[in-house]
Write a structure and sequence with these properties.
heterodimer; A: 426 residues; alpha+beta; Immunoglobulin-like; 4 domains; 6-stranded mixed sheet; 5-stranded antiparallel sheet; 22 strands; 23% helix; 28% strand; B: 448 residues; mainly alpha; two-stranded antiparallel ribbon; elongated; disordered C terminus
C-alpha cells in the first residue's frame, strides 16, 4: 500500500511543489529574507514530513475478513467482522476503509453515502455503483495493534458482491497526504444475495414424484431388494408375504423392502427469454424469486433438485445435479445475469439471443432426472429451443411468467400459479 | 449535523476568516499605516456565525428565515465595524460587504451539508500560499512580520481542521502527542535548514544564472540563424504597423423607456415574490434520518514496553539478516537470498510458493540477452539446490558472485528507472490530453 492518492492529498505534497518550496526557501535565505525563507522551509518540511509519514503509515497494514455470512436473502442484515492489523511500531493516526458497492446495490453497508465528484472516475473504472459508496473510519491504531470492527450490511436485492475493490486508506497525522491500497486478491471474499423469498406451494412438483405428496416424503420402495422380514399382520398386503419361508413351515412373515430415493426435479432457467429487444428484468427477478423459493420448499420436502443455467454475462453455462448443499443452487441463481445485449448496426435493433446450455452432461443425466421444468418468459420464444424439444413433452413441463398458451405436447403452467393462493402475477 | 463534523467546520470558518483578513490587508491596507480593524473583526465573526447557524438549525426552519438571520448578522457586524473604523469609500464598502457575506454563506452551508474533504484540503493549500505571499510582501515592504500572525493562525486552524476531519473524532492525548512531536521536529528542522539554506541558495542562484546565460546564448543563436535564413527586413519585425481605422457608429435613438421600466418593475416584483414563496416553502435544518449505529470495535493493544521489545526483536533480526547476507554473500545460499531480496520490488520478485529453482530459472530466462549472466545463473541453480536441500552440503563459494550481484542490481535499477520514466511519460501525456480536453490515459494503459 504505497500509492499516494493525489486527489485526496494536499497539492503541497506533490513533487513539483516540494521542489519549488525547497528551492525557494534556499534562494530566499541567500537573498537575506529570513522570514520568507523560514515560511518556505517550514512549508517544505511540513509537506515532506507529511509525505514520508503517509508512506510509512501505509506499510505493513493488513485487512482480513474474520467472519461473514456467505449468503443472504433480500431484507436480511449481515454482520461482517473485519480485522485490521498494524504490524509495525509507527502508530496509524487515522485510517478508513472504503467500500465501492456493486452497481445493483445488492449489499449496502449501514451509513453509506453518496460519492463525491472526484470519486466518480475511479468508481467508473472499477465498474462500481456511482449512487452510493460505503466508508468506515477507524481511530488511532497503536503499535502492533489488532482491531476488529463489526460492520452491518443490508441485503437489498439479488446479486453478488465482492470485496475485491475495497481500499484501505491512511496517511500522515497532519492529514495532508493520503496513501491507499487494495485488499489482496487472495483475501477477497464474495458475498451472495439470493433471490427474494416468496410464499410458494411445491404441489406441482410433488405431484409428479412417486408418493411424494403423501407422508412418505417422496421415498419409494424397491421390490427387488429385501432389507428384512417381520411377522405378518392382518393389515399387510398378501403380496408382501414371503412364500418361501411359509413353504418351509415357518410362521407367516412379510418382506420389508429397501427404500430408494425418488428421481429428482431439474430446473432449466432460460434467462435469455427475459432479455433481448423486449427485456423483462423485473419479471426475471420475479421468476428467479419463485424458483428460489420453490427450491427452499422442495429442500424441506426432502426432494432433490437440480438446476441448469444458460450462459450469462456472469459466467458460462452450468449444470448442478442435485447438490448436497442448497446454497450452491441459490448461489448460482444469485450471480446469474443474462448475456449483454447484442446490437445489430444494420437493422439498428437489439438481437434476441438463444440460450446456450451445457447440454451434453444434461442429456447424459437425463435418465436420472424425474422431471424437467423449463422456465421461460412465454411460449412464443420457445420454438427454436432445441434442447427443450429434445427433452420432449413427456418428461418436461414448461413454466412461463406470462399466462400460458398451449405449446405442442408440453404441459405449460404459469409461474404465478405456484404462489400460495396465487394464480395472479405480481 | 453530526457533532463530529462541527469542529472541522469551525476550524475551516476561522481559517477562511484569516485568509480574508490577509487578502484585505494585501489589497486595501496601505503600507506604513496602522492595520484596519475591520479584517480583525472577521476572525471572531466567522466562527460565531457558524455557531449561531448551528444553534438556529437545530430545528427545522424555512430557507427565508435562515437568510434573514444571516443578513441580520452581516448587517450587525458591518454596523459595528463602521462605528469603529468609520464609513468606507466605494471600493472598501463593496469589499466589506463581500467579506462579511462570505463567512455567513459558508457558515450556513457548512451546517446544511457536511464539508467535503476537498474543501478542507484547498483551504490548507490556499492558507500556505497566502502565508508565503504575505510574508514576502511584508519582507519586501519592510513592514513588521507581526502582520503575518493572523495568516499563520489561519494555517494552523486549517491544518487542525484537516486533522479533525481525517480522524473523525476529537483526538486524544496520544494523537496530540504524536502530532505535536512531529511539528516540533519540523520546527527544529526548519531552524537547522535556515542555517544551511543560504549557501545552498547561493549555489542555486549560480546555477540559475548559468542556465539563463546558456539559454540566452541559445536564443541569440536561434535568432541569428533565423535572420540568416529568411533575411527578414528589420522594419517588419518592429511592430510599427498602422492600425486600421474603426468607423464611428451611428448614435442610437433612445425610445420611450416608460413601458420597459414598468415591465422591469413588474418582473422584479414577480421574481422577488417567487423567490420568497420558494424560500418559505424550502425547509432546512432539524435532525435528518435516524440514529446512526456505530460500528463495534474490539482492540488488542500492546503496552509501549511490549511494543519496544518487539521493535527491538525486529531490528535485531534485521541486523542479523544483514550480517548473514554480508558474511555469506559469496556462498550459494547467501547469494540466493541476496537475489531474492534485491528483486523484491521489481517484476522478477519471487512469487508466493515459487521454488528456488523456478525463481532462478525465471531470472535466467530474463537474462537471456546476457550469455555470461545466464550461464552463471544456470550454474548457481544447482549449487543453490544443493546448499538448501542436501542433508550435509559442502561449503562452496560461487566464483561469479560479484558479477551476478552487480548485473542483477543494474538490471533492477534500470527497470526502476524505466518505470519512473514511464510514469513521467504518462503524466506528461495526461497533462497534454487535459490541455487538449481529451480523455486522459490511465497509468495502467501506459504502464511499462
Amino acid at each position: 500500500m504505497d500509492k499516494l492518492a493525489l486527489s485526496r492529498s494536499s497539492a503541497l505534497v506533490c513533487g513539483p511543489a516540494l521542489v519549488v518550496l525547497g528551492v525557494g526557501g534556499c534562494v530566499a535565505a541567500f537573498f537575506g529574507l529570513p522570514w520568507v525563507a523560514a515560511a518556505l522551509l517550514l512549508a517544505f518540511l511540513l509537506a515532506l514530513c507529511a509525505r514520508v509519514w503517509a508512506k510509512l503509515s501505509g506499510r505493513r497494514l493488513s485487512l482480513s475478513v474474520v467472519s461473514a455470512v456467505d449468503g443472504l436473502f433480500p431484507g436480511d442484515t449481515a454482520e461482517i467482522e473485519l480485522e485490521v492489523r498494524n504490524e509495525k511500531f509507527l502508530p496509524v493516526i487515522w485510517m478508513e476503509l472504503f467500500f465501492p458497492l456493486a452497481p445493483t446495490l445488492c449489499l449496502v453497508p449501514e451509513g453509506s453515502r453518496k460519492p463525491e465528484d472526484w470519486e466518480l472516475a475511479d468508481l467508473a473504472d472499477q465498474k462500481a455503483s456511482d449512487r452510493l459508496v460505503g466508508e468506515q473510519r477507524l481511530s488511532l491504531l497503536l503499535w502492533y495493534e489488532t482491531t476488529r470492527v463489526t460492520t452491518r450490511w443490508i441485503a437489498h436485492r439479488r446479486g453478488a458482491y465482492s470485496m475485491a475493490g475495497w481500499r484501505l486508506r491512511t496517511g500522515d497525522g497532519f492529514g495532508l497526504a493520503q496513501v491507499e491500497g487494495p485488499v489482496p486478491q487472495d483475501q477477497a471474499q464474495r458475498f451472495l444475495v439470493y433471490p427474494a423469498r416468496t410464499e410458494v406451494s411445491p404441489a406441482l412438483f410433488l405431484r409428479n414424484l412417486w408418493n411424494a405428496d403423501t407422508g412418505a416424503r417422496g421415498v419409494m420402495e424397491d421390490p427387488t431388494v429385501i432389507r428384512s422380514t417381520r411377522d405378518y399382520q392382518t393389515t399387510d398386503s398378501v403380496r408382501r408375504i414371503n412364500w418361501r419361508l411359509a413353504a418351509r413351515g415357518l410362521p407367516l412373515s412379510v418382506n420389508v423392502y429397501e427404500d430408494i430415493l425418488p428421481r429428482s426435479v431439474h430446473f432449466l432457467f432460460d434467462g435469455e427469454s427475459f432479455s433481448g429487444p423486449d427485456a423483462h428484468p423485473k419479471e426475471m427477478e420475479d421468476a428467479l424469486s419463485i424458483l428460489g423459493s420453490e427450491l427452499l420448499c422442495l429442500e424441506e420436502a426432502s426432494v432433490r433438485c437440480g438446476l441448469s443455467l444458460c450462459r450469462g454475462s456472469a459466467g458460462p453455462a452450468g449444470n448442478l445435479f442435485a447438490p448436497a448443499d442448497l446454497s450452491a443452487l441459490l448461489g448460482a441463481l444469485a450471480v446469474y445475469e443474462p448475456m449483454p445485449d447484442e446490437w445489430d448496426a444494420d437493422i439498428e435493433h437489439i438481437l434476441p439471443q438463444k440460450p446456450v446450455f451445457d447440454s451434453a452432461p444434461l442429456l447424459e443425466a437425463e435418465h436420472r432426472v424425474g422431471r424437467f421444468y423449463y422456465i421461460a418468459y412465454d411460449t412464443d420464444c420457445l420454438k427454436d429451443r432445441w434442447l427443450l424439444l429434445r427433452l420432449g413433452g413427456e418428461r418436461t413441463t414448461i413454466l412461463t411468467w406470462k399466462e400460458p398458451e398451449p405449446f405442442g405436447e408440453f404441459e405449460v403452467v404459469a409461474l404465478g400459479r405456484l404462489r400460495k393462493g396465487g394464480g395472479e402475477h405480481g | 449535523m453530526d457533532d463530529r463534523r462541527m469542529l472541522p467546520g469551525l476550524a475551516l470558518q476561522f481559517a477562511t476568516a484569516c485568509c480574508l483578513c490577509t487578502v484585505w490587508n494585501m489589497l486595501l491596507q496601505e503600507p506604513g499605516l496602522p492595520l484596519d480593524l475591520f479584517p480583525l473583526v472577521l476572525l471572531p465573526f466567522a466562527p460565531a456565525v457558524f455557531l449561531v447557524n448551528r444553534l438556529f438549525l437545530r430545528r427545522q426552519r424555512s430557507m427565508l428565515a435562515l437568510i434573514l438571520l444571516n443578513a441580520a448578522l452581516v448587517a450587525a457586524v458591518l454596523l459595528a465595524s463602521w462605528r469603529l473604523d468609520g464609513f468606507p469609500d466605494g471600493a472598501g464598502l463593496i469589499f466589506q460587504v463581500c467579506f462579511c457575506v462570505w463567512p455567513a454563506v459558508s457558515g450556513a452551508n457548512g451546517i446544511l451539508r457536511p464539508v467535503p474533504l476537498r474543501t478542507m484540503i484547498v483551504c490548507v493549500d490556499i492558507s500556505v500560499v497566502l502565508l508565503l505571499i504575505w510574508t514576502g510582501y511584508l519582507a519586501g515592504s519592510g513592514a513588521s512580520p507581526e502582520g503575518g500572525i493572523p495568516m499563520a493562525a489561519g494555517l494552523a486552524a486549517a491544518v487542525l481542521g484537516l486533522v479533525l476531519y481525517r480522524t473523525n473524532r476529537v483526538p486524544g492525548l496520544r494523537d496530540w502527542g504524536m502530532i505535536g512531536l512531529a511539528f516540533a521536529g519540523i520546527l527544529a528542522g526548519t531552524w537547522l535548514l535556515l542555517t544551511l539554506a543560504a549557501p545552498t541558495g547561493m549555489a542555486l542562484v549560480r546555477l540559475w544564472e548559468t542556465l539563463v546565460n546558456v539559454g540566452r546564448r541559445l536564443l541569440y543563436l536561434l535568432l541569428w540563424l533565423l535572420d540568416k535564413l529568411f533575411q527578414v527586413p528589420p522594419g517588419d519585425i518592429s511592430g510599427d504597423v498602422p492600425l486600421p481605422e474603426i468607423p464611428e457608429r451611428d448614435p442610437v435613438e433612445p425610445g420611450d423607456p416608460t413601458l420597459l421600466i414598468v415591465l422591469g418593475i413588474v418582473g422584479a416584483i414577480a421574481l422577488v415574490a417567487f423567490l420568497v414563496w420558494n424560500l418559505l416553502r424550502m425547509r432546512v435544518g432539524g435532525k435528518v434520518g435516524g440514529k446512526k449505529t456505530a460500528a463495534r470495535t474490539r482492540r488488542h493493544r500492546l503496552s509501549l514496553w511490549e511494543a519496544l521489545k518487539r521493535l527491538r526483536e525486529t531490528v535485531r533480526s534485521w541486523l542479523q539478516m544483514r550480517r548473514f547476507l554480508r558474511r555469506e554473500k559469496n556462498t550459494p545460499a547467501g547469494l540466493f537470498y541476496i537475489l531474492v531480496r534485491r528483486c523484491r520490488l521489481g517484476p522478477w520478485r519471487q512469487r508466493p510458493g515459487e521454488t528456488p529453482r523456478a525463481f532462478l530459472c525465471r531470472l535466467r530466462e530474463s537474462a537471456a540477452g546476457d550469455p555470461e549472466l545466464a550461464t552463471a545463473l544456470e550454474t548457481l541453480t544447482s549449487l543453490v539446490e544443493e546448499a538448501l536441500f542436501a542433508p550435509d552440503p559442502p561449503r562452496r563459494t560461487v566464483p561469479e558472485a560479484t558479477m551476478i550481484r552487480r548485473k542483477i542490481r543494474r538490471a533492477v535499477m534500470g527497470q526502476f528507472l524505466r518505470e519512473q520514466g514511464g510514469k513521467l511519460r504518462v503524466f506528461a501525456e495526461n497533462c497534454a490530453g487535459s490541455l487538449r480536453k481529451t480523455k486522459p490515459r490511465s497509468e495502467a494503459e501506459g504502464g511499462t
